[in-house]
Amino acid sequence: MSSDTSQLLEIADELYGLPQDEFTPTRDAKAKELKAEKELAAAVKKLKKPSVAAWVLNLFVRREGEQVEQVIAIGTSLREAQQGMDGAELRALTKQRRQLTSAVTQQARSLAKDEGVKVTSAVSDQVEATLTAAMLDPECAKAVRSGLLTAALSSTGVDAVDVAGAVAVPEALGFAATPTSGEPSAPPDLHVVPGDEDARKREEAETALEAAQETVDAAAAALADVNQAVEELQARSLQLQSEIDELKRKLSELESSAEETDEELEDAEEAQGEAQAAHGVAVKTRDAAEQALKGLHKKQKS
Fold this sequence. Notes:
The protein has a domain at 3-195. The termini are far apart. It is mainly α. It has nine helices and no strands. Helix 5 (65-81) crosses helix 7.
């Protein structure tokens, strides 16, 4: 392994052990620190932020590495034991495997919750599917053990899995995550024995209730937003109606004023006509008086 690869794995080990919201800024800052080493800086910059399910598993393998190793070891034993089993025995084995991965998944969820991360039902399913893949497929086990997962895994134990695409770098396969400190949790029963079916059903019911409550909360928030919008529009409608009523009142006043003005204009125009007629008569009378006066002057001179 080259020194650059070894250094990249060391950096990735640190980054994938961080809280998820710190991954991107820390990665980018680290890439800037390494700008003198262009190839390594570029490789660090390309490291993908893990999905929530991948982050939960990366956290769990660092905090509870021994339990992860037990799960993987039991998976190996189960793969060997299933050879030569009949259908009924295989079904029982599958049920026991599910009970085991369900118990470990619940513990991983609790660990994530302690870190302030709420794991939804969908994410929980991805975590459990990845643990199942680690039990069924040795390459998937290597990916989980690395603590450098970027995405969840799924395997039937028959078809090949693109494990390299689910880890930070291909060299992660064969790498073991550095354990981190934390409050030790009580290990689940890692023996393949018939489980408590009622407990499993209760857990499924609790998960379904959590999902339903999330839906209710989202719907309540949406309803509150819509109610606020309706109240604002109702207030705006009342304001506009008030403005319309005021404009109607002013329009009515203007129409009344216009009618009165029209009546006054009609009277004024009539008076104007009478004044013009009187003026015409006065002019004619004046002209006649001037002519009469001129005639008298002429007689006196003669």
